[in-house]
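seq as requested:
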Amino acid sequence: MNPSLFLLILISVAMSACAQLLLKLGVAPARGAVASDDTATSLMTYLTSPLVIGGFALYGLGAILWLFVLARLPLTAAYPFVGIGFILTMMLGIWTLGEVVTPTRLIGTLLIALGCVLVARSVA
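struct tokens:
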């Protein structure tokens, strides 16, 4: 795998991880603002949050980059790199939201990382 394709994969996956963070940040204050259990009201509150809109936009851009990846790699070689998103999302949750990671969750995430490394090494 050439370095530019690997960089494209990393950018696409990072965009998806950042989109997750934006979505989480966007629904947190909106969730507190919705006093009722009315699904329609909750949905409209979430969908009008600028952070949620930004998260969806980032997902869209990441998906467009992912199309370029899929055009150049077999699906079985490209898709395991999505696992990097689990790692990035966990790190963003720790750094920005102060989330706590248990040893079991950390070990599981490291196993995902190992899998990504093994797949990257197997791509010719």
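The chain has a mean pLDDT of 87.
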